[in-house]
Fold this sequence. Notes:
Order of helices and strands: EHHEEEHEHEHHEHHEEEHEHEHH
Radius of gyration: 21 Å
Structural class: alpha+beta
CATH superfamily of the largest domain: Gcn5-related N-acetyltransferase (GNAT)
Strand content: 25-35%
Number of domains: 2
CATH architecture of the largest domain: 3-Layer(aba) Sandwich
Mean pLDDT: 90
Number of helices: 12
CATH topology of the largest domain: Aminopeptidase
Largest sheet: 12 strands, mixed
Number of strands: 12
Amino acid sequence: MSVEVIDKADDLAPVLDAWRRLAAARGNAFVTPEWYLAALKALHGSAVPAVAVMRGSDGEVRGILPLVDCPSKSGSRLLSFPGTRFADIFHPVAEQHDEVEVAAAVAPVLARHVGARCRLDLGRVGVGAGWWRELAQAWPDRLTVVPQPEDALPYVALEGLDWQEYLASRSGQFRNQVKRKRRSLERDHEVRVRRSDTAEEVTSDLDTLFKLHDARWDDRPGVSSIARAEARQLHREFAAAAHERGWLRLYLLEVDGVAAAAWYGWYVGDRFSYYQAGFEPAWSRYSVGFLLLAETVREAIAEGAAEYDLLVGDEAFKARFATGERLGTSVLLAPPISRSRLAATAKRVARSGVRALPQSARERIRGLRHRVRSSG
């Protein structure tokens, strides 16, 4: 096998098709070249690519570790997946059984390229995956793994199910709400669910999503993952690229011709993923957000998706839909003795303490953190 590191965006073109094919096979939008390039443009203006590409003896791409090389005030090197703050899960762009081999092969080559004394921010990774541990072990002088507390990533297994079978697997209250709320809304109003089809609709409907999302969060103490301007620019870039590839799924539930709820996600490979949503609180008595979420599960089944990924979060509404969950943990790889390792360890201890608090206290802390960040 051979490994090269591509450090110029213009030089990525020869590997984009293989990269896209491998990422789609895993059903993960966060490791596609479309996400990478959108995040590089919207979030990492001063960074340069550090994309490690492993080829087999036949010259075919077998795996890619798509990182960015970010400048640091301290002068040390930081490699990371792009957009880690706004993404849910990362892994090498490779077949799952090749992940460990890819990590072992690219580690020494990346170390020679950027220098062994650097940090790697891997974002959230699968708890049971072996590749990130192998990456730490194969790095010259070895890196210390500093994981954070675990996060739930719920999902709905859809393979072999039709809509009625899925409904039958849910509680009686769930089934009644889907039917009763929809009937009530349609009895009193004209209702339509539509999907964004054109580039112009994508632009307009994404703005509607942001507006409805803000309305939903106005009276909540936490902070949304798409509240910041940089996050919205990232999703404008990515949504446009995903639309061109046929991956984007952007739905609006319209009542009397006006959007009452919006849902944003994608369908990559055989995985239908829910990223964010919003709704107009004035329509909350009809549970329009719940109804649109249920409608997208029905759409996923109709399109033949094997899985409906609810992505990260242990919210109660996700638990109502989910049939299972994976676990993820945010991981930093750092030299054994470094300020980064100490800071990450302290952060892990603090997060563990916060998670032991009641839900209401955690939400107040998140709201305070958001206000502090907003005030600069």
